[in-house]
Write a structure and sequence with these properties.
The structure is a homodimer. By secondary structure, chain A is mostly helical. The first copy, chain A, has one domain (19-165, 202-226): Tetracycline Repressor, domain 2 (Orthogonal Bundle). Chain A contains eleven helices and no strands. Chain A is flat. The longest helix of chain A has 24 residues, at 141-164. Chain A starts with 21 loop residues before the first helix and ends with a helix. In chain A, helix 4 packs antiparallel against helix 6, helix 6 crosses helix 7 (141-164) and helix 7 packs antiparallel against helix 11 (204-224). Chains A and B meet through helix 5, helix 6, helix 7, helix 9 and helix 11 of A and helix 5, helix 6, helix 7, helix 9 and helix 11 of B.
DNA sequence: ACCTGAACACCGTTCAAGT
DNA sequence: ACCTGAACACCGTTCAAGT
């Protein structure tokens, strides 16, 4: 159908109207994601936000799959890699936190970002930073790549848990925590039951920090053991 | 439409016909996933495989979202946790490998499994095993939960990369590797260019092993430093 | 208790026709 | 060069009607 006003027409827009562009589409798509989640992204909803027909998008992006890839690239492309200090632990930590900040800027998009082919061009900038730190810290070439991939796995795995967790899993919500705890205790699995109080809650920021510190310690121990 | 034979009818099946069941639906859904990928799963395709109308599925499962959750649970529920040996490193390694084996049994389902709310009931058995090992190795209660979550992040992050990588990224395919290498060199990012030969290829099994060993070393170092 | 026909409100995508 | 009408082949889901 398209816009319902009486001046609906075909062909290119009358002069003065904003032209459709890849950037405008991406911005609109990100708005949909932030407002209603990835599931609400469709060619039609995105186009509607631009007051344009869904089919028009095909002139600027490569179908829906291409749109989702582009959204992921957009989010990951906004990682602001901090300047290096020369202190490896500090630098690696800062890059990991920058990654998390970018993911948390669009919480609803996080699973999209983490789930798509990550080593796309957009993620090469943070990868470059990590590799540079590792090489300066004394890692061999092949070793640096293994360590990069290990660090990336920790970051991605941690952020994915955070993205998938129900919103209330974090702070407050003592009721939800009590419910989960009761569920865990009902399993009868001894360690699960014993640790139910700890398992029923999750401070995502602290958990991310813990995993990253553990990984960094492992990396540095490995590099200094030489 | 349903089956096109001339005896189409409504109501419950004539006696002798197999009844629809949650298990039958899950099995059919897993067949679709293995044969054509998660994207090919729809109420209609799954129902067609059972020669049943799509709407019939609603009597046994909670809509499409419920179906996807159930598939993920099914795959993860098949993790065969090995018996403990008392050697923490060996036991943790074995659990991680069991996790990978389950994921690789249904490669097309992997991203589904890793992406959904993981701490569902199905994943509690492997979690119990990890926690038990950690506690025996001397971890404090809260610490054991942090370490479990860190280990899970490494495993999930690694398997997610493996699942998302294009099939050819692994072995052979020297052409694809050469292409990727050329792409990486064109970025001009110094460390990326220097390490392009290593970055262009990825032995998933070795990479998984490396990340897991690094994580286990970190865990044990932390627990023995006391 | 279980299955389906009719129906609804959505999808992504192609392609020819318009300006 | 860019946009859309018409059209197609799909979706998930509700609900009343059948046995």
């Amino acid at each position: 159908m398209g816009p319902v006003n009486s001046t609906t027409r075909r062909g290119r827009p009358r002069k003065g109207e904003l032209r459709l562009s890849r950037n405008a589409i991406l911005a609109a798509a990100l708005e949909v994601v932030d407002a209603e989640g990835v599931a609400a992204v469709s060619m039609r909803t995105v186009a509607a936000r631009l007051e344009v027909d869904a089919k028009s998008l095909y002139h600027h992006i490569d179908g829906k799959e291409g749109l989702l890839d582009a959204i992921a690239g957009e989010v990951i492309g906004r990682i602001e890699v901090p300047e290096q200090t020369g202190e490896p632990a500090e630098d690696l930590r800062a890059i990991a936190q920058a990654f998390r900040r970018a993911a948390r800027a669009h919480p609803q998009a996080a699973s999209l970002v983490l789930t798509r082919q990550l080593p796309g061009p957009a993620s090469l900038v943070p990868a470059e930073a990590v590799l540079s730190v590792l090489r300066k810290a004394g890692a061999e070439p092949a070793e640096a790549v293994h360590l990069l991939r290990s660090l990336l796995a920790v970051v991605v795995g941690s952020l994915l848990r955070e993205a998938n967790a129900e919103p209330a899993f974090g702070v407050g919500d003592e009721d939800g925590i009590a419910d989960r705890r009761a569920d865990l205790e009902r399993t009868g699995l001894p360690s699960i039951v014993e640790l139910a109080p700890e398992l029923a809650r999750c401070d995502h920021e602290a958990e991310f920090g813990f995993a990253v510190e553990l990984a960094i310690a492992a990396v540095l121990a490995r590099l200094s053991r030489r």
